[in-house]
Amino acid sequence: MNTTALDTILDKAWYQGSLTKEEITFLLSLQDGEDVTKLFRTARAIKERNFGNRVFLYGFVYFSTYCRNNCSFCFYRQSNKESFRYRKTKEDIIQLACALEDAGVHLIDLTMGEDPLFNDGARSEALLEIVQAVDDSVELPIMASPGVLREDRFASMHDAGTDWFACYQETHNRDLFTRLRPHQDYDLRYNQKVWAQRAGMLTEEGIMIGVGETIRDRAESIIMMGLQGVQQVRAMTFVPQTNTPMEKKRSPPFREELVTMAVMRLVHQNKLIPASLDIEGVKGLRPRLEAGANVITSIIPPQKGLAGVAQPELDIDTGERSPTNIEEMLEGLNVTIAPLSEYRGLINSWKRRLTVEVLA
Ligand code: SF4
User: Fold this and answer.
1) What residues does each domain of the chain span?
2) Which of 57, 206, 211, 238 could tie 234 with a disulfide, CB 3.0–4.6 Å?
3) Pocket of ligand 1 (CB under 6 A)
4) Whose CA is nearest to atom 5 of ligand 1?
5) 17-48 as b/e, with b when 16 or more CB fall inside 10 Å?
């Protein structure tokens, strides 16, 4: 296809036509600077048509870095004896959540590895207690990212105050999934989103860029995200971690994540798309917002002994990922922080629709 074909596809997306897998693959393959600039311009215009120049901020509380799994890409995999482990107390978690609320975030993201101490056997109530305690302490929506849960846990998670459930498949290619997440069940992970929606929660899906997937795999994932009915979609660049089976694999150029994000915006025009501070730190904010992102995630208060997921230390203790610093940065990007009422209105309308769809 030539530039004319690109213009035709971008026009189709702008007028809300549904893109085919071939068209999505074509867009994901763009390399040329001018073509990519056109793609980003359209993605940004679609974002602004739907959300204006406003962004939402997500505060991140990674409260346990213990995990029973051995994902090939992850620093916190169980067999990495050199990774930094901690488990925050309920009191610490509440304090962190309150500090983030005071700083003006729109949501508290409670994340953990699959830590048996929070979610197994006799301790199966511990995760619920954390969610409930945070819900009692802050007036903000809560996202839970606890890894895989049993189906019968979802109603309780919802009742404890979980508004969003995040669980990234990383890829929708089953063979690649098995290599990335050895001894984990593809369908069980996929169903986390199904069960969360049935229990009344909003859901997030995500893929990793540069883990051995093809461009068509990326296109397939973008289509699957639509079929899954999730409200938030993300793409994050693979970053090699020491002491993991993938430590010698190199990251792809960040441009590939940005192009994927922009194509997601063309296909999923009304969904939330995060720009994570966990990949390039704060310097990666501008290109991600310009590629169509409208949420800033992984905001972390400094000096609290917290880690990031993909980049355990990047920009954290320096305070660069703190809410105050992000706010100052946004002033220079012609982006404003949305009022909390706008975020609440958005997620409440989605929840009402979810209820109608589940009842139907
Ligand atoms: S990606 Fe999550 S589930 Fe996998 S090892 Fe890391 S913390 Fe555990």
Assistant:
1) 19-359
2) 206
3) 67, 69, 71, 74, 76-77, 113-114, 147
4) 77
5) eebeeebbbbbbebeeeebbebbbebbbebbe
What pTM value is reported for the model? 0.94
Distance 247 CA to ligand 1 centre (A): 15
Separation between Cα atoms, residue 340 and residue 175, nearest integer Å: 41
Residue nearest to atom 2 of ligand 1 (CA): 113
- Show the tokens assigned to 282: 């704060």
**Measuring from atom 7 of ligand 1, which residue has the nearest CA?**
113
pLDDT band at 299 (very low <50, low <70, confident <90, very high): confident
> Residue 274: which of 306, 302, 310, 298 has the closest Cα?
298
Domain topology for 19-359 = TIM Barrel (3.20.20)
* CA-to-CA dists, residue 167 to 145, 146, 204, 261, angstroms: 6, 8, 7, 18
What's the token pair of residue 193? 């989103």
Interatomic CA distance for residues 59 and 51, integer angstroms: 20
pLDDT at residue 121 in the model: 65
User: Residue 72 C-alpha to ligand 1 middle, in angstroms?
Assistant: 9
Residue bearing the bigger pLDDT, 54 or 311: 54
